[in-house]
Amino acid sequence: MAIELPPLPYEHSALEPHISAETVDFHHGKHQRAYVERLNALVDGTDFAESTLEEIIRKAQGEVFNNAAQTWNHAFYWQCLRPSAGGGGGAPAGALAEAIDRAFGNFDGFRRQFDDVALKAFGSGWVWLVQRAGGGGLALASTANAATPLTGSDTPLLTCDVWEHAYYIDYRNARTKYLEAFWHVVDWDFVGARLK
């Protein structure tokens, strides 16, 4: 069963002016597509050929793991985003807002801590808002390269891709500006729906 490149839940230009259509075209249409295509070539004719993407991530190592995890991480990232004109950005509400307040003091404190983790992430990787196992509290996590919370017991709620290909076209090497833009397009409904 071939792994497919999931379509975006919006048009490539929908995240503008915060994330350009050109960035989305390269990020989704070239980088993520390359992970999917490479993964399918790697697993063809192996024990992983009939596995789901999540099964591959939990069992594979090396190049197979890297391409599988990057495929999943990117698909999750796109779901975390929503056009600001369609309700993206702002601040969360309800149970998610309450959980953030408990864990980080308030939303501004959460955002400052998230940005701090993202700015300190050396090289390429991901920043995650996760819920601890068993419906526990919220925490921040940073993973390098293709690493993902799927290999542990935490539930990923939100991610920000801090690989340069996520922002170089729009913001060059200014990760701070990319993070400012990111907060305008977070889909809090998606994030909140994952809370257990």
From TrEMBL:
Residues 4-81 form the Manganese/iron superoxide dismutase N-terminal domain. The keyword Oxidoreductase applies. This is Superoxide dismutase. InterPro entries: Mn/Fe_SOD, Mn/Fe_SOD_BS, Mn/Fe_SOD_C, Mn/Fe_SOD_N, Mn/Fe_SOD_N_sf, SOD_C_sf. It comes from the Bacteria. PANTHER family: SUPEROXIDE DISMUTASE (PTHR42769), SUPEROXIDE DISMUTASE [FE] 2, CHLOROPLASTIC (PTHR42769:SF3). The lineage of its organism: Bacteria, Pseudomonadati, Pseudomonadota, Gammaproteobacteria, Lysobacterales. Its EC number is 1.15.1.1. One of its GO terms (molecular function) is superoxide dismutase activity. Destroys radicals which are normally produced within the cells and which are toxic to biological systems. Residues 92-193 form the Manganese/iron superoxide dismutase C-terminal domain. It is an enzyme of class 1 (oxidoreductase). Keywords: Metal-binding, Oxidoreductase. Belongs to the iron/manganese superoxide dismutase family. It catalyses: 2 superoxide + 2 H(+) = H2O2 + O2. It comes from Luteimonas notoginsengisoli.
